[in-house]
Amino acid sequence: MIVITPKLDMESKEALYIQLYKYIRNEIMEGRMEKNSKLPSIRTLCDHLNISRTPVVLAYEQLLAEGYIQSKARSGFFIMDIAESSFFSSNTLIEEKNNILSSPSRLYHASKYEEVLYDFGYGSVDLENFPFIKWKKMMNRCLLPESSELLLYGDLQGDEELREEIAVYLHQIRGVRCSPQQIVIGAGTYHSLDLLFQLLREDVSLLALEKSVNDGVQTLIEQYRFGIHSLELEHDGVRMEDVYKSKAQAVYVTPSHQFPFGMTMSVNKRIKLLNWANEEQAYIIENDYDGEFRYNSRPIPSLQSFDQNERVIYIGTFSKALTPSFRISYLVLPTRLLERFREKKHSYDQLASPIFQKTLQMFMKSGDFERHMRKMRNLYKKKHDILLQAIHEYLGDNVTIIGAGSGLHILLEVRNGMTEDELIESAKQRGVKIYPTSVYALEGERSAMPAILLGFGGLSEERIVLGIEQLKIAWGME
């Protein structure tokens, strides 16, 4: 068994578990810990270093997650053969990290090269409860010789049987009224929006949208050179006076769970917005972001479900319901835009995998998707409630929670005198990854009170609590 004697600085701002993790990782990468060597047990190392159990557990967990060590039942922890694993030699790893540092940082979850123990990224989902066995079984059926057509490009509008399942699902869950013929499958939200903006070029020169919006959507809009009118946000959605003054031909909204601030558009405003669109012959682009997850109240039907005049364009994705990697989204187009799509007044190509589409269709038809969604709603509600409880316990009156009750993220307004950048950097020193909100402002403004975005979908219940506890220390709220 290896004896480990790292130099741990008890006065350092860097957490003990990060110091221990880095020491062991470097020893492995430099070859000073040989493959298959056994590490000390957690209790042995705690006693040897005279530290508590938590830093050792967290350091070992991170090493396990990154593939430096492996756990063998009833035997302990052992050094992996890095040369034969999916990781790199030390030189390659250093070179790769340098490349990462020069690349744009992710705004939705941490890179695998970042030394993060608690990642509150909004783009993460609970993968431990993904139905791997059932999904694999159905995908294997797609790879039989009789399904060989799935190895080709696929239908431009998307798998017809999948569109039938989506139409039924949307009507049952979100009240959307549409036929399968109105649905166009895409490879993610941005892909679907790219198609939509191509179809709208003839009608739209000025687009109104919420004053804070996803940065990827902002970039896409800039490519089409629409004029932009910013809409102020109130506690129940966009300020309608701004809509009336906008003279826009289309408005983009996230009414179910506004991104990033999390408010839900009231029914009263939904009706007013629909009346405006009908009077002005304008379109409403409804991105039903996080619409499937609502915890403390009855679901509010989609905007599209109220629409009597085909003014709403509905867009959604399976990224949160399943996993982002499948890249399956969908548009529900009004008749006029559907005709434009079929006339091929666009450069759109179907990029969503036919194999994934067919697997999802079978998953939905079997009833497994509905059962999975029920399970995930209960799971995410529990995580949501644990997060709020931990914030109240550890952060107390130093913060204000914004946007609770739905979706997979909340915002924290923090009152401790730190700037947004300082809050993020101090959290990073404690191994916690949190995310800014200022980057989503259309006009680049920062609010007087910094607000931090916390996603909870990808963290375990235990790590949610431990992460918030570390934020208390990082932000000096002890």
UniProtKB/TrEMBL annotation:
Pfam families: Aminotran_1_2 (PF00155), GntR (PF00392). Residues 14-82 form the HTH gntR-type domain. Its cofactor is pyridoxal 5'-phosphate. Keywords: Aminotransferase, DNA-binding, Pyridoxal phosphate, Transcription, Transcription regulation, Transferase. Coiled coil: none annotated. SUPFAM superfamilies: PLP-dependent transferases (SSF53383), Winged helix' DNA-binding domain (SSF46785). GO terms for molecular function: transaminase activity. InterPro entries: Aminotransferase_I/II_large, HTH_trans_reg/aminotransferase, PyrdxlP-dep_Trfase, PyrdxlP-dep_Trfase_major, Tscrpt_reg_HTH_GntR, WH-like_DNA-bd_sf, WH_DNA-bd_sf. In the C-terminal section; belongs to the class-I pyridoxal-phosphate-dependent aminotransferase family. PANTHER family: HTH-TYPE TRANSCRIPTIONAL REGULATORY PROTEIN GABR. This is PLP-dependent aminotransferase family protein. It comes from Metabacillus fastidiosus. The lineage of its organism: Bacteria, Bacillati, Bacillota, Bacilli, Bacillales.
